[in-house]
Amino acid sequence: MAESRTFVKDIADIESDFSRWYTDVVLKTRLADYGPVKGTMVMRPYGYAIWEHIQRGLDDRFKATGHENAYFPMLIPYSYLEREAEHVEGFAPEVALVTHIGAEELPEKLVVRPTSETIICEMYAKWVQSYRDLPLLINQWANVVRWEKTTRPFLRTSEFLWQEGHTLHETEAEAREETLRMLRVYEEFCQNVLAMPVLIGRKSDKEKFAGAQETYSIEAIMQDGKSLQSGTTHYFGQNFAKAFDIRFQSRAGVLEHPYQTSFGASTRLIGALIMTHGDERGLRLPPYVAPVQVVIIPIAAKKEGVLENAHRLKDRLTAAGLRVKLDESENSPGWKFNEYEMKGVPVRLELGPRDIEKNAAVLSRRDIAGEKNEVSLDGIESSVKALLDDINANMYQKAAERNRAKIVTVQNMDDLKAAADSSKFGLGMWCGERACEDKIKESLQVTTRNMPFDQTPVGSTCVCCGKKAKIKIYFAKSY
Amino acid sequence: MAESRTFVKDIADIESDFSRWYTDVVLKTRLADYGPVKGTMVMRPYGYAIWEHIQRGLDDRFKATGHENAYFPMLIPYSYLEREAEHVEGFAPEVALVTHIGAEELPEKLVVRPTSETIICEMYAKWVQSYRDLPLLINQWANVVRWEKTTRPFLRTSEFLWQEGHTLHETEAEAREETLRMLRVYEEFCQNVLAMPVLIGRKSDKEKFAGAQETYSIEAIMQDGKSLQSGTTHYFGQNFAKAFDIRFQSRAGVLEHPYQTSFGASTRLIGALIMTHGDERGLRLPPYVAPVQVVIIPIAAKKEGVLENAHRLKDRLTAAGLRVKLDESENSPGWKFNEYEMKGVPVRLELGPRDIEKNAAVLSRRDIAGEKNEVSLDGIESSVKALLDDINANMYQKAAERNRAKIVTVQNMDDLKAAADSSKFGLGMWCGERACEDKIKESLQVTTRNMPFDQTPVGSTCVCCGKKAKIKIYFAKSY
């Protein structure tokens, strides 16, 4: 236990310094490291492996809903950005500009994509002629660059990895349906794969994407009571289609502009799951995206047959499709326990001479502290698989309970201040005026998050101005 | 047949204009399109799907050989490039430079990675302390930018997608072993997955990677007799480790520089398979990477039960893990035959009322023209799967035979000129002098490709200068 304490001391206390706890966990579990250029991040193998599982899970869902992947160039003529007024206003200050190739100046400066609506619209204008070409449902996995002032690994980095889906539709109704469909895909993925409950709803005009008519988001509730916008879907109407002159011959034989959507989620999801599930001992990874789902730790490894049996166990579990690590290193079992707890491995199996005699192993689950159970080696593949499902369900339940306790109803600014001071979300009424949003942000550093689809009122007047209000919305501090 | 002729007329004749044939095939089968910025390419869904299968196949092999994926920032301080003299000399003229964020000039210009040795070495210097940290075997899937004067879709584009593996080792022997291991991985992948024979060997000093001590390549023989370098592995020795001060405590307790390798393959592989397998009717896609492996074409689709049975067939084949498309469009069967032949779909199944009566379908394979066979619907899943294996084997055999006929032994410049004039590779002896390579390139536009591992001499004197020569090497025009 001495080792245990020493080790966990490496991570700041989650209760008293959540922000440092986060950075410690990210760096010490080797999820990521800082890159040499300010604001950049290196995703190390342990962090990138989580991203690979997230990619696979989302990509399967995109394909199941009819989307195909493609890849568009990263460098965009600056003039494209200027074609949609709100878009250029939103992105111009933070775009990286390529001005030279070697010693030669380029005739037109190029933007490193901060998002790809413009270049994709330029291509769509070429590809789409008829209603037969619609819907056009394309997604891309790519890196984007947005130069942010304040950066943190996974949460906000100058360059990040993401996916961006861009779709065109014959009708407004279809496009709106797509916008909500993909929001639901994100929600379902977060719940079932990341064991992470999210609040879904529509953003205010102030908080929407630059150039969109409507933006919807999934908001994850972090343990410090802040909101992390973890995925967005946008309804563009015909804004970009007009700016880029995308037209198709309709069923009625007339030229029309199609209706457009986009949807995106990024490596920020990794930040979300760290801050949803982590605890005082480090990461707790949801089993379906954990790079290592089961760690096997040999006890009295030098005793005859222990390592041999440990290898056999590893091979059996691996053959069953599980991601397994056997730690044969010279470190003590105690050191290893702490290491893999900090790294958030969902299941630990200890295997020593006495266990082998009993045809069993000692099992501990990361989501429930202090519990140890003997598990028979007979049929251990299926018992571990069932356990991973159970862990996922339990992690989701725990997070959902905590979230419920983190949301309070607010009627006025005092309520909202009390909520913010106690690290909670306020759910309250809003008149819809930008002035109130600005005032709330200025005085409480709280922003509107999103308007849930269930708009059953929780009051009748705006929490800020006290005027009649019909919009129910979440308020919270945010990342 | 009238439609067939009209349709194929869209593609230039492969015999008389291979170059236009290539561009036509790429654009008309919608593998790719030109991007708005000169030299860039959009990978459309049909082309990108091939890339996804290539990625999966290579990635599985990298992981099976112990490599893990990570992601390093794309923007690299310019000064990093300058730390290795040959490296900066090789890449400086063609790098894209980020000089501004919005309206603000950056204190140091940033390079959009043309390759990532420098930034990865910077991080490795931080991560590696002891021999216990070695070998370090990391791969990254990423986009890179190299501004080339002459560009062609997939073959050479300003931005391209690739993977780059970067490894560090305790000893020179281990690093050299890794360099050859990954070369063999590329070779095996090309043969078994892309049905594409390649020539493997070491590049000359002139043709090696900027900063490497040795470069090895896989060279694919295109139908026009040109060579396409389709993947490379590099042995760096301690060059970069010294430049970036990477050091580890050895088993003997002394600080040493590790030995380094890298290996890369790109979307160029798609160009390689197009030009290896394509024919006068368009693409012929190797089955394991074909986005659509089986196309089902209903005959007399309006007759009762035809579409219903076609759907059932599609569902059965899909459930068996095959990638299947059922074309229910209004286009005529003849139009569809041509469309999917041009798109290179390996297997076509026609299903009409008479076939259904016989519990059969009519099967055509893209790799053998004009053959039609009846196939029973009983057990069609396994017969189609076996057929795809057979198609792959047959495509490999055909390509290998053609390749053999495209290599001739050369003793002197006349032989080499005759080889080049008849679109063939010359295999001959070389003295090892750069002057001879330069002269051959200048007079015949032919370059050295690589030195095969089997160095059994095919002569005793240099094809160029006539002096005594011990190196056997392939000479060819190249992309």
Q: What does the model show?
A:
2 copies of one chain form a homodimer. Chain A has 479 residues and is of the alpha+beta class. Chain A has 3 domains: 276 residues, BirA Bifunctional Protein, domain 2 (2-Layer Sandwich), CATH 3.30.930.10; 94 residues, 3-Layer(aba) Sandwich (Rossmann fold), CATH 3.40.50.800; 70 residues, C-terminal domain of ProRS (Translation Initiation Factor IF3), CATH 3.30.110. Chain A contains 15 helices and 24 strands. In chain A, a hairpin with a 5-residue loop joins strand 12 and strand 13. In chain A, helix 1 packs parallel to helix 11. Chain A is globular, with a radius of gyration of 25 Å. The two termini of chain A are 36 Å apart. Chains A and B meet through strand 2, helix 3, strand 3, strand 4 and strand 5 of A and strand 2, helix 3, strand 3, strand 4 and strand 5 of B. Strand 5 of chain A pairs antiparallel with strand 5 of chain B, so a sheet runs across the interface.
